[in-house]
Amino acid sequence: MGNRLSKIVTRTGDGGKTGLGDGARVDKFSLRIIAIGEIDETNSHIGVLLCEDLPPDVRAMLLDIQHDLFDLGGELSMPRHTLLGDAQVAKLDDWLAHYNADLPSLKEFILPGGTRAAALAHVVRTVSRRAERAMVALGAEETVAPAPRQYVNRLSDLMFVLARVLNRAAGGTDVLWKRDRAEGGAQ
User: Fold this and answer.
1) Helix, strand, coil in percent for the chain, rounding step 5
2) How many structural domains comprise the chain?
3) Does any domain span residue 78?
4) CA distance 153 to 97
5) What global pTM score does this model have?
6) Is 98 within 8 Å of 104 (Cβ atoms)?
7) What pLDDT sits at residue 162?
């Protein structure tokens, strides 16, 4: 990563192509660029979540995840280069086990919401699912290592759990889906 951006406006993308980290030029609508964009959007939504008042351990975890996602974007921009591996996936698994341990069992579906921080965690969850779908599509066309896809899958799971944790940290609970809400009440 010796090359740093010395200027932002290069005009090299005006024709609909963009450069990868290995110097190759590809269409901006290529599956690789779409996957990179989805990872970047996921990272940006975590940045918005970090603007909220969060427990210190959650803040540290999210900052660590942002660095991993930046590495993942770099890996995607350099085909056949590895930056994210099994250790990062295992780290998410550990966080999932830690944060899930004290949560009550689910008996109903949960709606995105509760506190603002929890709702933002749900946004990260859904955007990371989209990133995962983009990576699966890329993997159907090109070789993609399994760890990055697994990482994004675990990240969406972790964000679901984190939304529940954040609602409880603020003194609230999950927003439960009510199956029979229209029966007898709405006319």
Assistant:
1) 55, 5, 40
2) 1
3) yes
4) 15
5) 0.86
6) no
7) 98
Q: Which positions of the chain have pLDDT values less than 50?
A: 1, 185-187
C-alpha radius of gyration, the chain, whole number = 19
Q: Residue 177 domain-assigned?
A: no
At CB < 8 A and 24+ separation, what contacts does 22-28 make? Answer: 22/77, 22/78, 22/79, 22/81, 24/79
DSSP state letter for 107: -
Domain interval for residue 156: 17-170
E strand or H helix at 73, and its extent? helix 56-77
What HEC string does 20-31 produce?
Answer: CCCCCEEECCCH
Residue 88, in any domain of the structure: yes
Question: Residue 73: which CATH number?
Answer: 1.20.1200.10
